[in-house]
């Protein structure tokens, strides 16, 4: 499996599998067929089997999938069996909302620090985490084993901040700044453009109306 390149489309569906399987597990369901998953997720049973076969299959013909086992295995594939230490750069409304969303910690994503250039909010706390000045960021990242930086800052400063963070040892970015980051190939970036998602919804509404 390690040598096989998995398509981004398959990777993009894994969190949905994980989420729905978690709901089934919480409901006490012990096993599920690909057809039952298909009915819930609106993905064809054939597609589900193909997706999971990329990682070894996990199912038995005539039995289906063990819900708890598949949930745990997909969690491992997604790296959720490990803890990730995060910082947020940008303590505005979006940054504060992300820190206050408790469900991230259930998935192993732990916010350790918040940084902002605004002296008026430096020293304040968001859910018990102190907002620190940017000048403290390098030392904090190195001393607290931070591997992911969440950028909720204007695009004019995001590129420079990302370059600094790479030099500090950051391994990945969850980037909400409205600019695509270009970083070394060993650094992972997930760009989140909220307006793109809204425009996609607008297109689908317009197409449906037409």
Task: Please tag this protein with its features.
Rossmann fold; Arc Repressor Mutant, subunit A; 210 residues; 9 strands; two-stranded antiparallel ribbon; alpha/beta
Write a brief structural summary:
The protein is of the alpha/beta class. The chain has helices at residues 8-26, 34-41, 45-53, 67-77, 93-100, 103-106, 137-143, 155-168, 194-209; strands spanning 31-32, 65-66, 84-89, 109-115, 125-126, 129-132, 148-151, 172-175, 188-191. The strands form two sheets. Strands 5-6-4-3-7-8-9 form a seven-stranded mixed β-sheet.
Helix content bin:
40-55%
Low-confidence stretches: none
CATH homologous superfamily descriptor of the largest domain: NAD(P)-binding Rossmann-like Domain
Mean pLDDT across residues? 92
CATH A-level architecture of the largest domain: 3-Layer(aba) Sandwich
Number of beta-strand segments? 9
How much of the sequence lies in strands comes to 15-25%
Assembly form of the protein: single chain
Q: Supply Rg.
A: 20 Å
How would you sum up the major sheet? 7 strands, mixed
The N- to C-terminal Cα distance equals 44 Å
Reading the helices and strands in chain order gives HEHHEHEHHEEEHEHEEH
CATH topology of the largest domain, what is it called? Rossmann fold
Give the strand order, joined by hyphens, for the main sheet: 5-6-4-3-7-8-9
What would the principal axes of the Cα set say about the shape? globular
> Helix/strand/pairing class, anyone?
alpha/beta
Number of folding domains? 2
CATH C-level class of the largest domain: Alpha Beta
- Helix count equals 9
């Amino acid at each position: 499996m390690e040598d096989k390149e998995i398509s981004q489309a398959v990777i993009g569906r894994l969190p949905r599998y994980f989420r729905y399987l978690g709901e089934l597990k919480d409901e006490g369901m012990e096993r599920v067929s690909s057809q039952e998953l298909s009915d819930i997720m609106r993905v064809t049973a054939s597609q589900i089997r193909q997706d999971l076969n990329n990682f070894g299959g996990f199912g038995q013909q005539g039995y289906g999938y063990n819900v708890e086992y598949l949930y745990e295995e997909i969690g491992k594939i997604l790296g959720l069996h490990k803890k990730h230490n995060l910082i947020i750069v940008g303590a505005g409304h979006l940054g504060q909302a992300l820190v206050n969303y408790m469900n991230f910690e259930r998935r192993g994503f732990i916010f350790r620090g918040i940084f902002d250039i605004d002296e008026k909010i430096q020293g304040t706390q968001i859910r018990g985490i102190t907002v620190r000045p940017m000048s403290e960021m390098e030392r904090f990242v190195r001393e607290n084993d931070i591997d992911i930086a969440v950028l909720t800052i204007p695009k004019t400063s995001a590129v420079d901040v990302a370059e600094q963070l790479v030099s500090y040892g950051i391994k990945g970015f969850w980037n909400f700044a409205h600019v695509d980051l270009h970083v070394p190939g060993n650094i992972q970036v997930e760009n989140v453009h909220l307006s793109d998602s809204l425009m996609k919804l607008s297109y689908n509404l317009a197409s449906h109306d037409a």
